[in-house]
């Protein structure tokens, strides 16, 4: 085992051990150390650290998050491994550790249902169950492809050894391309989790406003499922804004419409099509959903400014989707709508 020492911006120190070649972010989180991170897959750059002593192997030097690195001795912890003892310093502070700490297990990934040519529901039968909260995600790796991808759980199921995921085929992504090219069989995968702070519990006793772009809806579905099972909508009116390209590429609208009905209309759903207007014929198929044109963050801005989201209801804001959508929505909420960043919980995947 390799000894790893990390010192944060305030001078707080933590130590843990990593196997040779193990990703340092995963080793630290599994040891109960609160290493700062967001995506944990190399996209965001939030887990950057400076190598003070020793050396690390950069597993993906071209990772998008590497744009956040400012010197040759900086590295992304999620894309670094050590073969010798190493000391690292953080520009950020440690964050509260996960309880329980995330860990790795194996599982069998298989198709549940194709939703479109590029989006499908999958399940993983885990060898060992993991504990997770609505809104969290896991890192999945396998199919002979290096590195992990983050996918959010979509719903609570009775079997704790099963998790359900929504996966979108990314033309530039080797893992999802390989998966969609071979949907007919199951695949053994490694699963690390659970991760993510954009979680929800009915015990919080507050309404929520959720904004999702594309497959970012996955974690929001788990929040809706938990809210439904926990009787949330009998006490609190909440809202969902879901951004899609167009009607032809839409998915999960039947399930979302059914959730509105089950909530006795205490869940209000708006679907925004960014590429083309929704036809009256298509909208008539989903009378429980309000269809509008435009980017989802623009639609939310209009709703906030019109008073459709009363400020005195003290809602929790959830934002999930690709980085461009999440960044635009966060800016709008904080700078234009004066929402406190402390009230926004988000997932930003690439």
Overview of this structure, please?
- This is FAD/NAD(P)-dependent oxidoreductase.
- InterPro entries: 2Fe-2S_ferredoxin-like_sf, 2Fe-2S_ferredoxin-type, 2Fe2S_fd_BS, Beta-grasp_dom_sf, Cbr1-like_FAD-bd_dom, FAD-bd_FR_type, FNR_nucleotide-bd, MRET.
- One of its GO terms (molecular function) is 2 iron, 2 sulfur cluster binding.
- The chain has 350 residues and is of the alpha/beta class.
- The chain has helices at residues 24-30, 174-180, 217-229, 253-262, 280-284, 296-305, 323-336; strands spanning 2-7, 13-18, 48-53, 57-58, 74-76, 80-81, 86-89, 103-114, 119-126, 137-142, 145-152, 162-168, 187-195, 208-213, 238-244, 267-273, 289-293, 316-321, 344-348.
- The chain has 3 domains: 2-89, Beta-grasp domain (Ubiquitin-like (UB roll)), CATH 3.10.20.30; 103-195, Beta Barrel (Elongation Factor Tu (Ef-tu), domain 3); 202-348, Nucleotide-binding domain of ferredoxin-NADP reductase (FNR) module (Rossmann fold), CATH 3.40.50.
- Helix 6 packs parallel to helix 7.
- The two termini are 31 Å apart.
Mean pLDDT across residues = 94
Count every beta strand, where a strand is a DSSP E run of 2 or more residues: 19
CATH fold name of the largest domain: Rossmann fold
CATH superfamily membership of the largest domain: Nucleotide-binding domain of ferredoxin-NADP reductase (FNR) module
Tell me the name of the CATH class of the largest domain: Alpha Beta
What can be said about the biggest beta sheet?
6 strands, antiparallel
**What is the percentage of strand-forming residues?**
25-35%
Assembly type of the chains comes to single chain
Helical fraction equals 10-25%
Regions with little confidence, pLDDT below 50 for 5+ residues = none
Instruction: Determine Rg (CA atoms, Å).
Output: 21 Å
Strand-pairing-aware structural class: alpha/beta
Which CATH architecture of the largest domain would you pick? 3-Layer(aba) Sandwich
Which sequence of SSEs, written as H and E, runs from N to C? EEHEEEEEEEEEEHEEHEHEHEHEHE
Q: What count of domains describes the coordinates?
A: 3
The general outline is globular
């Amino acid at each position: 085992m390799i000894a790893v020492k990390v010192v944060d911006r305030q001078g707080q120190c933590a130590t843990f051990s990593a196997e040779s070649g193990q990703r340092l972010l995963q080793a630290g989180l599994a040891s109960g150390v609160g290493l700062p991170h967001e995506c944990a897959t190399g996209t965001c750059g939030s887990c950057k650290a400076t190598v003070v002593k020793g050396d690390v192997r950069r597993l993906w030097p071209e990772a998008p998050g590497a744009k956040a690195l400012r010197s040759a001795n900086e590295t992304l912890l999620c894309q670094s491994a050590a073969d010798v003892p190493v000391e690292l310093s953080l520009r950020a502070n440690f964050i509260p550790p996960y309880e329980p700490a995330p860990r790795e297990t194996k599982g069998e990934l298989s198709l549940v249902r194709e939703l479109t040519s590029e989006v499908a529901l999958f399940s993983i039968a885990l060898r060992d169950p993991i504990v997770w909260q609505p809104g969290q995600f896991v890192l999945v790796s396998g199919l002979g492809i290096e590195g992990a991808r983050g996918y959010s759980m979509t719903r609570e199921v009775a079997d704790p050894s099963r998790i359900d995921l929504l996966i979108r085929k990314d033309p530039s992504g080797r893992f999802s391309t390989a998966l969609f090219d071979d949907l007919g069989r199951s695949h053994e995968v490694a699963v690390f989790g659970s991760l993510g702070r954009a979680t929800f519990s009915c015990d919080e006793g507050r309404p929520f406003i959720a904004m999702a772009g594309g497959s970012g809806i996955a974690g929001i579905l788990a929040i809706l499922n938990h809210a439904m099972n926990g009787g949330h909508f009998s006490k609190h009116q909440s809202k969902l804004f879901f951004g899609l390209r167009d009607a032809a590429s839409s998915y999960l609208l039947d399930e979302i419409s059914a959730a509105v009905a089950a909530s006795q209309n205490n869940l209000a759903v708006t679907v925004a099509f960014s590429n083309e207007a929704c036809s009256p014929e298509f909208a008539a198929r989903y009378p429980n959903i309000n269809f509008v044109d435009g980017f989802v963050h623009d639609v939310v801005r209009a709703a906030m400014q019109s008073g459709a989201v009363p400020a005195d209801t003290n809602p929790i804001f959830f934002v999930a989707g690709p980085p461009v959508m999440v960044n635009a929505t966060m800016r709008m909420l904080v700078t234009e709508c004066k929402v406190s960043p402390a009230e926004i919980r988000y997932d930003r995947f690439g």
